[in-house]
Structures are given as structure tokens and as C-alpha cells.
């Protein structure tokens, strides 16, 4: 039985590898997807960090009213420029991101020890103004508390008394990562799930519904081999292929992020070892198993390649959607959520990428459930192969 | 030897095969003749074990194709009406795959494939991928695939359909040679002249029933017609569907 299955696996692999479409399809999932994410998020990250480091040109109305404050801003990498006539309209039109307005009575208020208010004109609906406006605001806050402290000291009071509850931010991330790296690590499960659900998509449909549509299934099933062995052989061939695609996608994504030139472009410092890559791939094996089994099931059930592709794409979307959601909306997982196939693996992969320890009991349970669904799907598909329905096309004759 | 006993098969409301019985002995060419849609292909698919009969049995060398399917299939080579080759594999690889599934391997298998390539005169196409093969070339590969395990029983569904004159003649030669080796040959056709020319034993199927069966001489005698063609028409009751 093993020898016969090996014959079937060999044939399917040779046949598939000669199929440019299937190889192209897999390469698409393997190479383009991670590359796209790296370029896209690298670009975003680069834009953000450049904005934060670059000298910011700040138009100011009434700069002469507060020479001290202006000097402080100037020392902190802000270029003070003159504001146009109608500053408010310029911000609303989007010509300017942010404008600082210092009223004429600023000096008077300041001298008298009253809150000397200034105004920041911003457009809340414009994305480009969020980074510069928060930068200016935090500088002014700094200046404000410096002055406040000096005033307290002048009155013989320790400035410490005004800080009732200080907050210290302690970063306990196991791996030293900057925020950009965190975002990119959230994308790792997306890359892996996409590869798991799309890497073998075409092959699974082609070897089942495709073989039937090309009418080579009937001669094949007339060979003295239990029919279910054909299904298992085909499954193993597609499974091996998809696993390889998933591994390549994962490795490519993480290795790419570690390349110095890429890091120089993206501004994301991240290096992940092969132990992480291999552990992540090991964690996703049950998902690959389940995805391929489900694809084989719909491929065996459907009456045409078209029908099979439709079902299979539903499965693929359902399979990788959770990873996409959770990469942008990080939800604290409840323990039971980790038992849901693909969702659990998302969190495990995320933990591994961040260097956190895994709860092995949870991993085993989740893997068992995922594999179980795959085995049930395979068992149903095997039954389909044992029935004559598999050989009855749309028009029996 | 292929023996069919009281075979029934329906697809929903369509009764494709109703109570068909006949025997195809070793060393003879048995022809299944009938108009299109008479139930020839369904009968052959039941014998091959592709479909399961509603009732009745088909046996190959005594093995029931339903309950002892693998034993029966080991002794049977089938040319299906759709040739279903793997287009990305070469002709030789197509034949080799089926040979290996029958348990052959190594030098013995390659020697057998070489014999078939010579028998079917397909040396030129043997190492080409089958994509783009003409119908005649496809049939050759499909026949080689059906014969690679040297089955005692050979079943051919419309083997000459779509072939040109030369290929048809060559095909007849192959069928006669298989008969001379003492094998049981069952082949279906709706071409009367072909059946008349080749077959020692004729089973005429019409409307899912066996309309008549016997040697050409017996059929002529039974209907009182000198001409076999008139005998066929008399048995089937209509000229429709026969060529």
C-alpha cells in the first residue's frame, strides 16, 4: 500500500511541477505576498520616522509676543516661519499642517503668572497633520512644565510636589523591538496563513475536480488499487507542496526583513533566527493539513473545476481572514479562542516571533483540533472516492 | 473470460441497462453492437468496475467486479471512450504510471513498454508529452496503457472512433493479434461493417436489452437474411443509429 501510494505521489509531483500555472500560482503566494508587505509597511514606517526626525517648519502668528518660547522651539529642531494672512483657511485647505498662534496679551499674562494660552490650528480630519501637531504640542508641554518648575523653585517649593503620580513606562518585550518591528511581526501570521490556504489551492482543485473534468479519472480508477489510496496519494502530494510553499513564504519574509539594505529602507530593525522560523512553520503544519484536506474535499465533491474553485476560495478566505483582522485589531485572546483552528495558531506564531514562551498544552490541544478537522474532511473525501458518484459526470451515460 | 448475468443499471429515471446477460469467451473477439445510447458504454463501465450494478453480476475470469473488484481489474485491460491521458507526461510516462500501479517495475516494466511501443508503432511519439497528440496517437497511448500488464481480458470501447483508415487497419491488426494470443476481447462499436469483419461472437444491444447474440452465421440463419446488415436491421427493428 505504501509503495503504491508513493507511486501516486511521485506521479502527481512530476505532473504538477510541469504545470507552469500551479508553480506560478504558488510562487505568487510565496514571494510576492511577503515582498508586498515588506515594501508597503517599510514605506509607511519610513514616512513616519522621517517626519519625526526631520526639522519641522512651523508657521507662527505673533512670534514676537513670546521670544523665549520661540527660542525653545528653535532649539528643539523646529524652524519658525511666518504664518500667512489667513492661517485658519490655509490649514483648512490643507496647505499647512499646523499653525501656532501666540496672542498679543501672551507676555502680560505670562508675567502675571496666569496661564498664558497659545493656540494650535490643526485639521483633525487630515492624517498628515497628526504627527507634526503632536510633536509641537509635546514640546510646548515640556516648555510649560519647565517654566512651572522654575516658578515653584522661586517660591521655595520643590517642583516634585506638583507631580502627584509619576508614570514610568517599562518595556518588558522579550525581544528588543521598535514599534515598526511590532507591526511587521503582526503580519507574519498573515503571510503564513495566506501561504497555507492559497499555496496548494490550485493543485488541490486540479488534482481532484480537474482530473475528473479532463476525464482521466475513470481510466485511473480502473487500476487494481483501492480508490481511497488515490485520494490519499494526491492529498500527500499537495500537502507536501503547500508545506514547502508555506516554509518558503515564512523564511523569505523573515530573512528579507533581516537584510541590512532592506532594514535601511524600511527603518525596521528586526532579526529573527532560524529557530523562530522553524518553530513558526511547525506550529502551522496542522493548519496546512486542514486547509489542504478541505480543499481536496470540495474538489472531490464539486462537479466541475469552476464549482470547486468557488468553494475552495470560500474556505481560503475564511481561513486567512482571522489573521488579517487580528493583525490590525489586536484582541487579548481568551483561552478558548486559542482552540479555534487558525486563530490559535495566530497567537502561537505571534508569541514565538516575540520570543514569548508557549503554553504547550494549549498548542497540543489546538493542533489536535485542527488536525481532527482535517482528518474528518479526508475521511469524507475518501468515502466520496469509494462511491461511483465520483465517476458520474454532470451527464451520466 | 467475461461473463455478464442479468445486469441492471438505472440513472435516476433512465434505465440504461436492463437485464443484460452474455458471455465473452477466451480466444474470441466478441463485439457489442448497438445504436448510440443503447447501453454499450454503461455495460462496459459496469464490467470494468467503474460503476456498480443495481442488480446482476459481471465476472472476469470468475472474479466479481463488485465484490472482488481489485482481482477482477488485475485481469482486465480497458480502453475507455475518453482516453484521459496526462498531458504533461510523455507517452512512455503515461504507460509507465499504469504499469507501476499494476505492480510492475524496473527492467521488466521497461521491456514491456518497449514491446508495446513496437507493437503499436509509436516509437516517434514515445518520449513526447501527450499534449497536442492526434486522436490516433492518443488511442495508441491509451491502448498501450491498457495492455501494459498483459491482461487476459481486454475491453475496448469504440477503439476506432475518430481514427483514419490506416490507424483503423492497424488497430484491427492489434485486436486480431491479441485474440491469437488466446485473450478474451470485448469491443463495442456502432459501426456494423467493423463488427461484421472482426467478430466471431456478436451481442446486439438495443434500448438497454440484449436483442440477439451469436456468431454472424447464427444471426443470419436466425433472421433468414443472407446479408448480415439486413439481419441487424431486422433484429434492432430500425436503421436508426447504425452506420
Characterization of this structure:
The complex is a heterodimer of chains A (397) and B (243). Chain A is mainly alpha-helical and 397 residues long. Chain A has two domains: 260 residues, no CATH class; 108 residues, abc type-2 transporter like domain (abc type-2 transporter like fold), CATH 3.40.1710. Chain A is 66% helix and 5% strand. Chain A has 15 helices and four strands. In chain A, strands 2-1-3-4 form a four-stranded mixed β-sheet, with helices on both faces. In chain A, strand 1, helix 3 and strand 2 form a beta-alpha-beta unit. In chain A, helix 2 packs across helix 11. The longest helix of chain A is centred in the N-terminal third of the chain and has 34 residues. Chain B is globular and about 55 Å long. In chain B, helix 3 packs parallel to helix 5. The longest helix of chain B is centred in the C-terminal third of the chain and has 16 residues. In chain B, the strands form two sheets. A six-stranded mixed β-sheet of chain B has the order 6-7-8-3-9-10, with helices on both faces. A four-stranded antiparallel β-sheet of chain B has the order 2-1-4-5. In chain B, a hairpin with a 2-residue loop joins strand 4 and strand 5. Chain B contains nine helices and ten strands. Chain B starts with a strand and ends in a 7-residue tail after the last helix. Helices cover 38% and strands 25% of the residues of chain B. Chain B has two domains: 167 residues, 3-Layer(aba) Sandwich (Rossmann fold); 67 residues, no CATH class. Chain B is an alpha/beta fold and 243 residues long. The chains are: A mainly alpha (397), B alpha/beta (243). Chains A and B meet through helix 1 and helix 9 of A and helix 1, helix 2 and helix 3 of B.
Amino acid at each position: 500500500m505504501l509503495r503504491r501510494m508513493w507511486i501516486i505521489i511521485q506521479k502527481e509531483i512530476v505532473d504538477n511541477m510541469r504545470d507552469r500555472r500551479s508553480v506560478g500560482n504558488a510562487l505568487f503566494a510565496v514571494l510576492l505576498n511577503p515582498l508586498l508587505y515588506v515594501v508597503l509597511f517599510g514605506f509607511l514606517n519610513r514616512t513616519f520616522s522621517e517626519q519625526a526626525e526631520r526639522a519641522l517648519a512651523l508657521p507662527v502668528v505673533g512670534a514676537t509676543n513670546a521670544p523665549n518660547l520661540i527660542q525653545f522651539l528653535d532649539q528643539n529642531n523646529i524652524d519658525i516661519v511666518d504664518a500667512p494672512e489667513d492661517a485658519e483657511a490655509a490649514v483648512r485647505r490643507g496647505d499647512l499642517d499646523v499653525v501656532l498662534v501666540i496672542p498679543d496679551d501672551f507676555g502680560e499674562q505670562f508675567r502675571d503668572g496666569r496661564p498664558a494660552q497659545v493656540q494650535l490650528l490643526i485639521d483633525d480630519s487630515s492624517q498628515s497633520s497628526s504627527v507634526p501637531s503632536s510633536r509641537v504640542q509635546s514640546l510646548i508641554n515640556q516648555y510649560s512644565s519647565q517654566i512651572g518648575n522654575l516658578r515653584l523653585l522661586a517660591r521655595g517649593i520643590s517642583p516634585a510636589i506638583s507631580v502627584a503620580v509619576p508614570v514610568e513606562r517599562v518595556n518588558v518585550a522579550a525581544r528588543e523591538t521598535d514599534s515598526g518591528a511590532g507591526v511587521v511581526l503582526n503580519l507574519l501570521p498573515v503571510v503564513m496563513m495566506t501561504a497555507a490556504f492559497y499555496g496548494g489551492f490550485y493543485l488541490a482543485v486540479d488534482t481532484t475536480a480537474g482530473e475528473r473534468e479532463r476525464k482521466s479519472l475513470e481510466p485511473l480508477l480502473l487500476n487494481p488499487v483501492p480508490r481511497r489510496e488515490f485520494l490519499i496519494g494526491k492529498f500527500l502530494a499537495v500537502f507536501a507542496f503547500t508545506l514547502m510553499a508555506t516554509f518558503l513564504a515564512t523564511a523569505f519574509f523573515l530573512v528579507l526583513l533581516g537584510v541590512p539594505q532592506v532594514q535601511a529602507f524600511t527603518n525596521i530593525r528586526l532579526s529573527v533566527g532560524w529557530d523562530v522560523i522553524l518553530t513558526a512553520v511547525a506550529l502551522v503544519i496542522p493548519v496546512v493539513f486542514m486547509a489542504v484536506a478541505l480543499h481536496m474535499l470540495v474538489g472531490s465533491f464539486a462537479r466541475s473545476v469552476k464549482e470547486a474553485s468557488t468553494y475552495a476560495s470560500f474556505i481560503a478566505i475564511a481561513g486567512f481572514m482571522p489573521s488579517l483582522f487580528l493583525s490590525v485589531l489586536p484582541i487579548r485572546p481568551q483561552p478558548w479562542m486559542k482552540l479555534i483552528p487558525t486563530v490559535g495558531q495566530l497567537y502561537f506564531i505571534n508569541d514565538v516571533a516575540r520570543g514569548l514562551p508557549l503554553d504547550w498544552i494549549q498548542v497540543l490541544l489546538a493542533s489536535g483540533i485542527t488536525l481532527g478537522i482535517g482528518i474528518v474532511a479526508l475521511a469524507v473525501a475518501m468515502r466520496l472516492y469509494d462511491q461511483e458518484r465520483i465517476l458520474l459526470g454532470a451527464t451520466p451515460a | 473470460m467475461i461473463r455478464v448475468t442479468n445486469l441492471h443499471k438505472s440513472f435516476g429515471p433512465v434505465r440504461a441497462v436492463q437485464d443484460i446477460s452474455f458471455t465473452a469467451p477466451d480466444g474470441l473477439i466478441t463485439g457489442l453492437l448497438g445504436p448510440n445510447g443503447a447501453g454499450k458504454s454503461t455495460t462496459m463501465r459496469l464490467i470494468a468496475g467503474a460503476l456498480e450494478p443495481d442488480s446482476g453480476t459481471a465476472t472476469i475470469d470468475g472474479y466479481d467486479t463488485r465484490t472482488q473488484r481489485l482481482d477482477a481489474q488485475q485481469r482486465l485491460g480497458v480502453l475507455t471512450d475518453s482516453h484521459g491521458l496526462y498531458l504533461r507526461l510523455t507517452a512512455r510516462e503515461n504507460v509507465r504510471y499504469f504499469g507501476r500501479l499494476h505492480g510492475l517495475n524496473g527492467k521488466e516494466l521497461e521491456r514491456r513498454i518497449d514491446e508495446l511501443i513496437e507493437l503499436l508503432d509509436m516509437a516517434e511519439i514515445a518520449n513526447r508529452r501527450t499534449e497536442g497528440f492526434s486522436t490516433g496517437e492518443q488511442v495508441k497511448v491509451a491502448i498501450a496503457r491498457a495492455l501494459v500488464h498483459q491482461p487476459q481480458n481486454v475491453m475496448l470501447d469504440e477503439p476506432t472512433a475518430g481514427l483514419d483508415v490506416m490507424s483503423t487497419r492497424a488497430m484491427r491488426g492489434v485486436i486480431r493479434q491479441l485474440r491469437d494470443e488466446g485473450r478474451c476481447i470485448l469491443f463495442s462499436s456502432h459501426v456494423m461493417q467493423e463488427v461484421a469483419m472482426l467478430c466471431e461472437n456478436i451481442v446486439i444491444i438495443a434500448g438497454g436489452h440484449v436483442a440477439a447474440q451469436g456468431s454472424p452465421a447464427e444471426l443470419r440463419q436466425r433472421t433468414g437474411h443472407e446479408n448480415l446488415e439486413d439481419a441487424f436491421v431486422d433484429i434492432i427493428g430500425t436503421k436508426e443509429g447504425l452506420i
